[in-house]
Amino acid sequence: MQDISGLPKAGQQLINSYGDGGFRVSGVWYDSSSLVLPEMTLPWPVTHMDELSVDSLTDVIAKSSEVEILLIGCGTNMAFIEEDLRQSLRQHGIVIDAMDTGAAVRTYNVLLLEGRQVAAALIAV
Q1: If residue 69 lies in a helix (H) or strand (E), which one and from where to where?
Q2: Model confidence pLDDT, tens digit, residues 69-93
Q3: pTM here?
Q4: Domain 2-122 has CATH 1.10.10.10
C-alpha cells in the first residue's frame, strides 16, 4: 500500500492511500474502484478500461462546473482513451488525462493541493 500525505482545505477529498483493491480518501476506506470528486467520493463500478464510457462518468459530468480536469486511473498500466469519449467530456468543459492508477492518485493530490478543479476516476489496484 502506498501512503500519500498532504493538507487539503476543509471538505476537499485527499487520497491518503491506495492498493489492496481500494482507496483511503479523507480517512474513509473505499474497497472498490472510485470516483473522487472535489467534495465527495463515490464507489465506481468500472473494473477495467473496456467498461469506461460516458455513462460511467455521469457523476463527473454532473459536477462539470467544479471539474476542469478528469484523471483516469487505468489500473496497473496506462490505456488509450477513445477520441469520442474525450470529445463528449470536452463538450462539458472537462479535459481527460489517462495514466496508471498510482500516477493518477499522485497527480490528483498535487493538482488538488494547487487549487485546481480536478477529479479522478480510479480503477482499483
Answers
A1: strand 69-73
A2: 999 999 999 999 999 999 999 999 9
A3: 0.92
A4: no
